[in-house]
Queue: 4 jobs
Job 1
Amino acid sequence: MRDAYFAYASRGCIRKCTVCAVPKLEGEQRDAESITSVVRNIEARYGPKKDLILMDNNVVASPRFHDIIEEIRDLGFLPDAKLSIGRVPIQRRVDFNQGVDARILCKGPSYLRDLSRICLKPLRIAFDHLGLKAPYEQAVRYAHEFGLTSMSNYMLYNFHDSPADLFERMRLNVTLNEELDLRIWSFPMRYQPTNLPDRTHVGEKWTRYQLRAIQIILQATHGVVSGDPDFFKRAFGDTVHEFHELLMRPTLFQPRRSSSALVVSEIRLVPDSAFSWCPEMPADSAA
Ligand code: SF4
């Protein structure tokens, strides 16, 4: 992450999701300064960087999206691009790290075709509630069609969703991984209203007890939900019923340190491969 150019190709968003601060903080969708000039200026001052991290709020909503991809290609970030500085060439990477919008990606294959023409890794598609299931799944299938196999998503919970809603979203990733031989992993993100100074908000379909259980499980995995089927079934269950039971397990609510240790030790029983396929999971997460 340190060896990267950080830039925006666009800013703001076409939507006004109530859960999101972007409409207030960033405003309407618009172009940003040319990424070519940002990259060239950084390169002239600090030398070439391996990766390109783009922090756009909703890049696929930009009317210039196709041109942005061409600009990224012109900067050398083609699929399999490598940076040769030392003896060993290093694989380069583009990351739209705020995620891309499934409701736009699902409209046709052209968006994923464009994204497959750069060294994008991972593809991050936001999946904030189960109402997005159809567009999300369609976007993943297009990604698979164009050879994009490494995917990650942010999953909001504790908003208008329920535990079952969160489970179904996580479970869908496991199903798609199994069916299409993909590697999708996710980061559940707990909703907190921005005007609440502490983290006490409990969504209308959640209980404090369930939120605490999720927090303990996620502590054990550094916040990452691997889509590896063995890992997932052990950490979250295979059905909604098992997930609900797991959230009510009293052993999760032993004193804080021992309950986390218990979950970690259970997850440790899963082969290391369950962790190694999530590049964003620290190597010692299972330890
Ligand atoms: S689409 Fe994403 S960035 Fe835009 S308002 Fe909704 S959550 Fe925020």
Note: The pocket of iron/sulfur cluster is lined by residues 13, 15-17, 20, 22-23, 57-58, 101 (CB under 6 Å).
Job 2
Amino acid sequence: MTSERLAALVCAHVVDGSAPLRMVVHDAPIDPSDSGWQFLCGEGETEPPSVWMLSEVIEQFPDVRVLLDQPVGRSFVREREGAEWIAYEGEP
Ligand SMILES: [Zn+2]
């Protein structure tokens, strides 16, 4: 399981609440402080994401916890908040 003290990217819409968290991507970490996880609205990003600690993401969005032992290269999409995550190999 990824350390919850590592950094994760959260899209500007999810941060400001203007769009729900609907896409989670597990990329390869870019450095030792990075988890490689991205938490996105999935509707196209035009602004730079925020950097959160993974533990902060889990606190705000507890239903991502079930994903966090999934390997690099996988991504997850759901239709709406509370819906089941659908897994993809690579980008959906
Ligand atoms: Zn977004």
Note: The chain has one domain: 7-89.
Job 3
Amino acid sequence: MTDTQFDIMKVTAHISEQPIKLTKEASPEAELLEIMNDAKASLTAYTEDTRGTCMDERRRTELKSGKPAVEVRPSLPGGPDVYLLAMRELTGYHEGQDLTANERAHDSKITLDNEGILSGGHEECAADNLLGTWAGQVIVDNQAAIAEYTHRKFDEAGLEFDMNLMNQVFEHAADIQASGRYAEWSEESYFDLLGAEAGEAIEKLEHAPHLGKMMIWVDIEGQTIDQTKIGNRAFELNLPYMKRVENAGINGPAAELVPYARYAIIGALAAALPNEELQEGMLSA
Ligand SMILES: [Zn+2]
């Protein structure tokens, strides 16, 4: 491990000047810095064989199987299955195909299995249960704010923002809403899809309100925040892991819309979450 040993001293913690969401007085900067430092100190290595999980900030208590140990997992909205399903919807990956929500979820699951990306998620997951709502109506209702947020993320990454491509994502969101194909979808549909795997793949979280004040991006290969240590203070988004899922599951013309759909998802979830303050932080190396 000498050559590749992770050096936490080289990690930069950055807080964006602009919050993703703020409908009350901002928390003192010292408090946000403390969250960032704790997140940095909690960084834990994961491998290609570590299951993914949701960005949800609440502490992990046990697995669905009842096993008490929950390993530290890389995270994104809903877990890899839910995220890929939403990304494919918003990039129009299945455009022209008359598929139900269950068929789409099954198709994503096969792709992830083939690519060696292990399923994961949690019980009582709004990103999963309400996928049809946030990927449809919430995006449709918050287009201006989502376009502004996406544009900002593009500027930060040095990418050129194209409103025509952003609008294509909005059209796909409108299609999700109009189709009603997620009317019967719930996390039970997802657990059924996982079958026997659900016991190991699905985490149980503490019953607590969403109190996270930050959305922390981790842009470090193979490192993730320990959500149980940071619990209830910050959501975690693992950018290299998100890209791994996106690259595994989306190709062809839909690929052009990937970064637009990625930030539309974060913007929509920020709008849908009850949290009044969501500051944005980034850990990079
Ligand atoms: Zn969740």
Note: The pocket of zinc ion is lined by residues 54, 56, 78, 122, 125, 127 (CB under 6 Å).
Job 4
Amino acid sequence: MTVIDGAVASDIATLLHHRPSVAAGTVRITDACTACGACLATCPERALRRAPRKPLVIDDLCTAWWDCVGICPTGAILDVRT
Ligand code: SF4
């Protein structure tokens, strides 16, 4: 079970409450993630948030820039557009 501290949980709750009505895309982060943090700054929507094991993806904020997919040194971020 992943434990998220109170500040992060509060931030996530705020984001979900104010989420846009339409999300353009999303990504999944695999176990290849080394938690380097390189992807966090690439997202203009702040859809990736620091979390203990690997970044947390806020699907409803993703607007499909995909810069995170390109910058990941381990190929851990998968574009899961349908
Ligand atoms: S760039 Fe890749 S390896 Fe680094 S934190 Fe993001 S998903 Fe993990």
Note: The two ends are 28 Å apart (CA to CA).
